[in-house]
Structures
1.
Amino acid sequence: MALLVSKFGGSSVASIEKIKHIATRVKAMKKDGNDIVVVVSAMGDTTDELIALARATGSEKCYREMDMLLATGEQQSASLLAMTLNNMDCKAISLTGWQAGIQSDSTYSKAKISGMANQRIFNEINQGNVVVIAGFQGISPEGDITTLGRGGSDTTAVALAASLNAEKCMIFTDVDGVFTADPRIVADAKKLSKVSYEEMLEMASLGAGIMHSRAAECAMFYNVKVEVGNSFNNSPGTLITEVANMEKHRVVSGIAHDKNCARIAIFDVPDKPGIAMVLFKALAKVGINVDMVIQSAMRDNRNDIAFTIEQDDLEKAVPVMEKLVKEICASGMSYVDDVAKVSIVGAGMQSNPGVAADMFEALAEEDINIHMISTSEIKVSCLIDLCEIEKAVKVLHKKFALDKLV
Amino acid sequence: MALLVSKFGGSSVASIEKIKHIATRVKAMKKDGNDIVVVVSAMGDTTDELIALARATGSEKCYREMDMLLATGEQQSASLLAMTLNNMDCKAISLTGWQAGIQSDSTYSKAKISGMANQRIFNEINQGNVVVIAGFQGISPEGDITTLGRGGSDTTAVALAASLNAEKCMIFTDVDGVFTADPRIVADAKKLSKVSYEEMLEMASLGAGIMHSRAAECAMFYNVKVEVGNSFNNSPGTLITEVANMEKHRVVSGIAHDKNCARIAIFDVPDKPGIAMVLFKALAKVGINVDMVIQSAMRDNRNDIAFTIEQDDLEKAVPVMEKLVKEICASGMSYVDDVAKVSIVGAGMQSNPGVAADMFEALAEEDINIHMISTSEIKVSCLIDLCEIEKAVKVLHKKFALDKLV
């Protein structure tokens, strides 16, 4: 008898019909003799509808109240799934984040889980209940409801699996698993049966969108075995686990791409120590992450700095940068949002020099211009024009023979 | 500086526009130098929509989960009102039932308030916040979310006013106050400036629908001064207070009517001690309240018993009664749902004999047949045919000169 944690996203609980479908699945897992904890997101568009209401009040930046509002979405889907299970003679009980003992800090709208007080969950399991937990939420030290920000439900599930010492955390979504590239772009993209934590982490950060990087990080840290699969069919998903289990011959495991990019360039920045720090601190202060960075060669003690951010953050970043350009006496700035990032990811790259060169070659053969490059031990990313992103994904998928993967 | 508790019903918070309207009103009360606690119901149709979802799961009788689901409605409206107030520079914070310390028993779907732990409310007031509390909900000793059943939000407001020692509890609704009769039926019905707790209690039970009888009972018990008024205008409402303040000359204060009636008759019930008890215990067991009862004169040691219940309960009552008719060897039963109850209510009736006779006379003059009668110290109710209810209300309003009230 194993303890399994399953997480179902918003599209898996978008209607009562879909809830009934996953309830059947949960009941089958329970009937196999497992103890089951289920984490759910809010139904389909619920969160968007609540955000629209909040916007209408003119006060959607009132984060403490926003969390109070948004947390109701997951509470609703959790109770509806518990009802459905009970109606199928599968004993179930729903718990909110605070009832499940999910403790967080007080950073409303993007709180971090700080602790787990799981006694209630164990009590309910011991009474034979499937425990359905509202994802994406916790309780602050002040006793206020918090939400966990992007990837919050995935992170809830992985953190619960870690603290409950579950055998596996199953993340159910609307795709079959992790693919070598987005199947909507590359028709012969292959599903990977296993990826390493590190690869999943890179793929998640690079826009693969299957599982949030925060959850992948948590899984890696606590060594939680995660399986990503489709809630609407029973085909085996992708297992995310330690690199020790990986097929060593695979150099590149997948092609990731991200259209949510914008590039800002600052011209003629004085070459003084700490200038880059000033720029990026100002962005961090308004909650903007900088991704790729290049600093051009020095000329007359001045140089140009370019960097990328999420396109969604551009509106917030531009006024901050315009103000700074004056303060640091740069000559000006520019920004574009018609750029995108394509990346190759693979744990095998570490011991295979020349992979980056292969990537640049493949892009050059198709006349795709590279604006920026960034690398890590297991990935290489290139910023290119947005209009060429699909072509780039296809050519790289072919170049690294991912369509031949078995 | 006074502490005021205000309650706004579902129609008052049905849209963001309406929420803005009441926020303006709350801000004005706060600006007058008062400490403000606001209790809100769920937005307009939210509760009905959630019930429809629950029905679709086939498990709407799973009361613990229903409460988990339904409580989200008030949590949403509370947070939206708090956001709106903050956006108007009126500091506000929303609290759920459990955050506000509203303790209840574990009778899911119709829990009773068992205690108040108001420290958090006082803390927030001391920090200058308007405190917006989700009505209709509490927390059970097991730490589960409960809802308080019919009239739950009114009761939350009155109970808070009592425990916070508020100067006044203001129940805002979509009518101007308590009228001498339903203004939709009697065009010249007058708004009463004051009524006694007892009168309000009778009117509420008799279907006046302004304020729930449970809340009126709570107000009477704890001596909470309540004002019922219109959330959409500033005309003075009706003050509900001790009878000592009442105008003594008023014999009848109002005409109430209730169309939600059904009558069940059981024929030839054996005249044995405890038979009536058996009937009414069986109904109580399925949660049905019996209202008016008559037992006809005995004939051959057998007699007929007739009683009224809420029309909504008829479907549930009939099979229970059919089973019992056999068990107690009665000869049969019948039921009708085209009946209604008209009542006269007035604290002055206690010292004015002959008021009931005046009522019967007025109905007789209009050829309105009376099926059943029940009386208390301050009211007389008659069951009549549903099709005659409006005529009856009008003629009684005139008979007791309520249109001449100043």
2.
Amino acid sequence: MENSEAEIQKAISEISYGLYIVSSMSGKKMNGQLVNTVFQAASCPPLVAASINKSNLTHAYIEESGIFSISVLAQDTPMPFIGLFGFRTGREIDKFKDISFKLLAGCPAVTENALAVLAVKTVSTLDMGTHTLFLGEVLAAETLKEGPALTYEYYKAVKHGKTHKNATTFYAGADRPA
Amino acid sequence: MENSEAEIQKAISEISYGLYIVSSMSGKKMNGQLVNTVFQAASCPPLVAASINKSNLTHAYIEESGIFSISVLAQDTPMPFIGLFGFRTGREIDKFKDISFKLLAGCPAVTENALAVLAVKTVSTLDMGTHTLFLGEVLAAETLKEGPALTYEYYKAVKHGKTHKNATTFYAGADRPA
């Protein structure tokens, strides 16, 4: 049995994910970022969770405001749109300047290329080293259109997408950011 | 904007998942169960997490032993095999009696129908209401075969699979267990 770092990374890479934009705000400032780890944490009442890198601006905004939104991306989301939310920082640009969004329960939620949007109020957090898991109650939700959701597998295999260095799934040995 | 329970559940159902068997042990007794919420929590060192219903036997075994394994299921996993781990309880039957498994870092890991197996040592937990999130370090991992992973979407759409009442994603209004 081999247990090298590469062998562990290869096995971990078999885990399936969707792709989402998680957004939050600080006063009138808004920001959002690409996230692959979003999941329903409990069924009744419905709790959802999202994992965010501690060094990202969206992390600071969620800590400050206690709310965030989740936009479930459609499979046909264009790569430049993914690049805007996945590879740019809100510290340098206003990501919401030219895209469609709405306020859902008071929280900005990206509606462009989204199948559904959810607004979440944080109730608990878990320190996961490089990332924080934000667990929260769903305040409001809307389904915007029908169609297949974008998966991380599809993004990598069909769209030849890269992985940002701040992602949980980043592995320097296999996949360097553009 | 409608915010009925059904509207929230519809939006939540757009979240993507894989399907896994999470196994653990109590002395010489072994048990495992179907899980949809497994994710990489941090990149360096690699941490992974799994969400388990508090009322399940596997939950008690992980709490006792502090270790668990994850088997990433292949897309062609037969439905009776999924039924064994997803809809039967280890309190009544020995799920490991007739299936292939191995001991990985001392923890039983189902190898039948698995693309990869990981052994994990719990380092932290998060109470999520009906479920506990177990976060841990990867002790060992092996890739067993190549091929597409089974996703929850494929299980529901192509295999017409049901959702157990103890799953995070169970919603009585839409999907009753067999």
3.
Amino acid sequence: MSQIITFGEVLMRLSPFGNKKFIQANTLEFYFGGTEVNVGLSIAHLGGKVKHITAISDDFIGDTAIAHLNKFDMDTSAIVRSNRPLGVYFLEVGAVMRPSSISYNRSHSAFSQIEPSMVDWEKALHKGHWFHWTGITPALTQGAFDTLKAGLKLAKEKGMQVSADPTYRSGLWKYGVEAKDALTELLHCSTVFIGGVNEINEVLGTDYGYTNEEFIEASKKLMEAFPTINKVFDKIRTSINASWHKIRARMWNGTEFRETQDFEITHIVDRIGTGDAFAAGLIYGLQHYDDFKSMQFASAACALKHTYAGDVNYATTDEVQRILDGNVTGRFNR
Amino acid sequence: MSQIITFGEVLMRLSPFGNKKFIQANTLEFYFGGTEVNVGLSIAHLGGKVKHITAISDDFIGDTAIAHLNKFDMDTSAIVRSNRPLGVYFLEVGAVMRPSSISYNRSHSAFSQIEPSMVDWEKALHKGHWFHWTGITPALTQGAFDTLKAGLKLAKEKGMQVSADPTYRSGLWKYGVEAKDALTELLHCSTVFIGGVNEINEVLGTDYGYTNEEFIEASKKLMEAFPTINKVFDKIRTSINASWHKIRARMWNGTEFRETQDFEITHIVDRIGTGDAFAAGLIYGLQHYDDFKSMQFASAACALKHTYAGDVNYATTDEVQRILDGNVTGRFNR
Amino acid sequence: MSQIITFGEVLMRLSPFGNKKFIQANTLEFYFGGTEVNVGLSIAHLGGKVKHITAISDDFIGDTAIAHLNKFDMDTSAIVRSNRPLGVYFLEVGAVMRPSSISYNRSHSAFSQIEPSMVDWEKALHKGHWFHWTGITPALTQGAFDTLKAGLKLAKEKGMQVSADPTYRSGLWKYGVEAKDALTELLHCSTVFIGGVNEINEVLGTDYGYTNEEFIEASKKLMEAFPTINKVFDKIRTSINASWHKIRARMWNGTEFRETQDFEITHIVDRIGTGDAFAAGLIYGLQHYDDFKSMQFASAACALKHTYAGDVNYATTDEVQRILDGNVTGRFNR
Amino acid sequence: MSQIITFGEVLMRLSPFGNKKFIQANTLEFYFGGTEVNVGLSIAHLGGKVKHITAISDDFIGDTAIAHLNKFDMDTSAIVRSNRPLGVYFLEVGAVMRPSSISYNRSHSAFSQIEPSMVDWEKALHKGHWFHWTGITPALTQGAFDTLKAGLKLAKEKGMQVSADPTYRSGLWKYGVEAKDALTELLHCSTVFIGGVNEINEVLGTDYGYTNEEFIEASKKLMEAFPTINKVFDKIRTSINASWHKIRARMWNGTEFRETQDFEITHIVDRIGTGDAFAAGLIYGLQHYDDFKSMQFASAACALKHTYAGDVNYATTDEVQRILDGNVTGRFNR
Amino acid sequence: MSQIITFGEVLMRLSPFGNKKFIQANTLEFYFGGTEVNVGLSIAHLGGKVKHITAISDDFIGDTAIAHLNKFDMDTSAIVRSNRPLGVYFLEVGAVMRPSSISYNRSHSAFSQIEPSMVDWEKALHKGHWFHWTGITPALTQGAFDTLKAGLKLAKEKGMQVSADPTYRSGLWKYGVEAKDALTELLHCSTVFIGGVNEINEVLGTDYGYTNEEFIEASKKLMEAFPTINKVFDKIRTSINASWHKIRARMWNGTEFRETQDFEITHIVDRIGTGDAFAAGLIYGLQHYDDFKSMQFASAACALKHTYAGDVNYATTDEVQRILDGNVTGRFNR
Amino acid sequence: MSQIITFGEVLMRLSPFGNKKFIQANTLEFYFGGTEVNVGLSIAHLGGKVKHITAISDDFIGDTAIAHLNKFDMDTSAIVRSNRPLGVYFLEVGAVMRPSSISYNRSHSAFSQIEPSMVDWEKALHKGHWFHWTGITPALTQGAFDTLKAGLKLAKEKGMQVSADPTYRSGLWKYGVEAKDALTELLHCSTVFIGGVNEINEVLGTDYGYTNEEFIEASKKLMEAFPTINKVFDKIRTSINASWHKIRARMWNGTEFRETQDFEITHIVDRIGTGDAFAAGLIYGLQHYDDFKSMQFASAACALKHTYAGDVNYATTDEVQRILDGNVTGRFNR
């Protein structure tokens, strides 16, 4: 059976219980996450076959991370082990007007040392038919950028579908390469663009606004600049406060513009990984449904993710489908 | 002092902390519950004298269940001990649009083996003046149905009040008896009906709608068919989502139709046992107040239950009264 | 560097986890609090230099309380140790229409034995430039009243600023002194009044209403009666239910009336210490900003406190400032 | 069925998890205990009928304490409610050479206010045939001493058995009565003495040593001085360290001296309440067995208690019997 | 790569934290176990390739159990899903002379319904070279016995190695078949016997004693009666108490008798699954070492298992080897 | 009052609860530690005045670390904040023959960037009279070595006492400097040597054995080579297994050889920081007692530390003294 390939850093997330600040706490919960592996694990939980490629520490923390991936029946055979430690991030969860805070300890992690020579892409992509990447990986180090580029080029040669989530985060990109240049190169290998006008403006150097008309214009311009891209999906989040959000999405696939309804999350359980749940829902959806149904599926999956603790979306296909059928009142399953 | 009698299975409930799914968890909380014992314990906590009759495993889990009932000063002297295990159910608590899920392990439990010969109803009802039953018990096994029937017949002979909550759950009723036939037999021993048009339609084979007019019509029809019944109480729940509900109630007592105001629960702590809290409030109320006041008391008790973890309503009479007095802003008690 | 002085009882707070009642629980969380020390610790966390004066038990519980104060770099050198135990209070946290409940065990605590001879006020106030007191302390015992009075008289002599939060709580004041008489005496040493028309009516024997006009009138009357007072700040809370509140504030400083916007807290984490967070924000603010900005700062600090567990406001100056800058959507800090 | 009566203070015990000190912790476990109620609850758990008499706070903490007693099916109908708080004690659990530490907050508790007029002893002892008291109660306050004395006098009149555990603790006895005088008066109402040469020396003013011969001499002397006493039981503890103890017992019943074997507890779980478990085992035993068998039963019960967390001995009769049958290797029960 | 096959019930284990009894607890930990799957998971953790065959409930509990097996990279592809619930067992952990207690709820579990027609043994054993079974499975139901028998017959035909751990537990074997008859039939398919004189006496109807000489005699007799068996391994446990054990082993392989040294476990963390860890160590060992080295490896693995919480032996090959190298002082690994 | 100065890295320690492996856990406890700060905090807890100098991350983790140090009333005014993350180490706690494991993530931490220019040693040592250093710091980076060297040279100039704990750990010392050379340079500034023949052999290139005679010889040789050193203290640990150790110490102060008795720790709670507790006890002791009493005090403090969770010795002077007085049976403090 053909596989979906994800590539990127796996981090350990550490948080106090509940809404405590570190300064109050003396116990922590841990999870494993990272934007690309979140996408992969969430697809695996929906029932897709996924292989994740990364570098992980060769110690008991690394063993634990791999056991976590195995738990979802993910293919972990291509993971490289390293004598550097696994990256860590600390999360303080906010509430209402108090934002959550994140502090990263990843700059010299196992993944930070990755080089193209460490991944045998021919073997890794052997059964693959879809490759998902995000803008976090090329932003980390030259080696991560180069390794991803090598993988994407081979994926393009093999005619694989490639989804790109070029999330731009200004705190990264510190090793000397310009975000715009790197993303341009990688987008020329991609077929599905997951992002909105901000991301398009960043790549094209334009300044489109947020209206639907401008979104369609921007998408057309993007497809002109990157002829391999044939679909653009944009997830839109409205934050009432840290505990109460709305989610919707829109798309342009070259011929059709569509929008979803609003999904309202009045009591957020966990905000981390919700964008990744959208991407995972979309990739899973595009294997089984048309573009609009896929976007609806992705939006409902993203909304549901806000109700699970941890980085992964524990929603199943049935659970997502029930939301799409209008069952948003959360009545009991017996 | 005269007692309220409840009869039905006691189950152990097991849930992960917070909103976790089992697949994420490795620790659980446990509670003891079951619709009839929830009613009994909630009445006991309000100050009523209650005896619960059931069959419970003869091991340390059963000892723990009985200790839990003793904690509320419930009369446990008529409980039968069995070498079958206590039934268990697993609960995953949902949030917002994610529903909660329940998985039962009760089909060969201690209670599933109950037979009329195992309960000495004469002795059990000696001090009783009220008997409460629900549609769950006759739906489980022939023995449970027969045992309940024997108890209700004696209660009727003794002129006891009998409240019926004929909750219909289609996943049960698998042992060969028709729900409608069994409930009909049991309702002929009952004096107070706790249920709405759905339950009436189920029993009478009618198809009344949800308006107040149709509710009154249905109630009249029910009283014609079951002349022992002289009061009908209907609790109505509106679910905005799994975390936010509204509760109200209406009644027909042969001469008068009344409705309560809406009780809004914006941040649900625990949804389990809230219907049982309504029944408990009603039974307790009818010992002390008129019909309308009893229904208001029951509705406020039901609303309050949503704020307690576990199956039991930990509200006291004073706490319920304060809600009825309009103190719904949750200001401190010092 | 000059210090802010707080004086009052430190209590140990004990609560079940989450929203449980004691009768369901068998584990507790503990915090240290008390209205004046909450103000002091919250100022310390904002960056102010604070010395707290109190009497604390000379056992391992007292050691733990002092370690908690040290954690915030508070000056604990003037604390008296006693062979009486530390006061304790038990808190059950409510939800929605269920109020929280508090039960105190403080009547013969270490602090209840305090006498003027036990505090060397000359030394204690040596570096002080501000003294904060509340109406709780004089309500406890004659000794607590006398000790506070001695401190305030010296503070007045030294020309210190003195903020008064004369919170009236009818369950206290049992030792024989009239609240009105005692507060009158103490207010004659004070310069900033933190309270509204209720507190003014209590002290003056008047019956002003809640409109802004009446608030201004009442404030003017208060300043006439207590010429040392030159500013009045009033925090107003609207409770939708126990989980959802609104906060705003208003002021009269002799020349100007101002009001803040509403701060809405849709999902309260912890209600305790929020009034103290207002006082702390105000005192901190008045060292750095004009009156109106100080009141805004205090209101935002108070709103933020609702999102932290425990008695202390863990908000930093930056976090408060971001709320004032309109960042109330709780987006991530990365 | 006839009852065993216990009388004494119920305290709330608060401890950090595991072996932590308070200064490291921020969560606690709570239990309810007190030497006499520990004896009562341990007898109730063995299957005896027990009524406990005490004064308990009239708040949610007191409700929780009573619910704890109800859980063991103890008769709580004679308990007095008071507007004073329940006494509290804090426990830090030691290990190896580090001793455990205790800090009490009981001096003005609900029980500290008890007076003879508050207990209707006629009614309380109506079904009683055995009364157990300890030296803690008369050491607390004049009122506690007087109330106990009134109860014991009536017990003597009614010909009840009375067991005395005159534990001498020098930190108590602060209200003006001499320990020796008070204990002498109370022992004149007693029939079974639970204590060793230290306690006998304290009461008689003698200085017997620890040999068996001197123990027998001392016991004879005691029975001369207190002719109602006809049995003396002495539990002997050898502490290797805080985690490793040995227990044995010896007796003189006027005609016979007997000793038990050593019971070795190599890994102590909880040290609190182990002496109370000995007394409970003895009282339970003397209803069913001869003196020597009762002492063996008590010693095994005491040893087992070291393996349970909390104040109460959760051992059942069967579990104690298995120890006496020589099953000390802790093999599985399946 | 060739696989080791295990077959048997997977149960959910539920225990209070620490040494608490259920009657004291309100939170639980859960694990998944069962003697055969414990063996399989422990081999998998040592690095072997293992396939487990069983029937598991088709609900979220079953999903969680399979996720647990996947975590160890076990082959779960042959697992049958059933609409019966997963079996559950409750464990109270003892200490010192207090034994642990177990209560099972497995008699109508998913696995209790297993029938030969439900397992495709040809496919299941396709890559297998070793099959491990225990006496628990044939003791449960006729279907479990028949299904195991079908598997073992095929294993024998295919010339696979078959290890038998015929643990005799008298509380089982209730469905009508004699233990001796069933075990005889199954042992005729087996090549390695894991058991001592008790098990041999049970099967042969003999009464050998515990000396090494009698062990050798008994083993010879067993090999005469069951010519396929060519090795006997006997693990011997000496219990000082429930917290302190010693382990050693002895063997007879037709030509040679050998014994291991004693392994002393002074502070047991978890007793469950330690026999399974011996079997797992032995099976793993026999793939790589000679008979004596395998037995030593198994004994060290068994000893180490006492230091891990849960049913599985989390020891790695390296960790076991270090014990065999004499590193039993537990010095730090840095 | 004069201060004791400690200098070295502060790390965050993360461990699963109890004895779990990471692969089993999903919650962690955290502590702050590091050999030098452990010494400092343990002295502070004994009552000494201590200033710790280090570099700590400028984020909420760093804030929490400093709050932890403040809790002990340690002087944190000389701590440097850095934009690198705080170092982390993961600890799996072993039991019996299973060793504990440690995995470090410190190589690019805040402290790893420290340079002499970042510490104003003149100001830092202003009130200091004692400086404690260990062999961990110079083993980390050139900058750490140079910074320490600068501090020690100034300490020597100022005539301060300097205690050296040259713990040799071969996994460190990777940046190019030879351990022997670096330690030699630093020991020339030191007055008290805490170490045994292993450490002396490492520094001098000798090969003394473990007898008392050879220890004395080695100590004399050391004092010849380093004339500033006038005392040698050697702590000797005997490990029965990971849960059971013995501790004793010996000394040579130029004129006198002395040994302590054995301190046996039969049930270890936490092994981390016990060597640091010895150093802390010694340094504290040498301010108040003669050499032999100081060594006894240090040994008892070290033994006690094994009974506290975390890196710090929570023992007080009184608690240590009681051990020295022979109270090792762990009887209650009331």
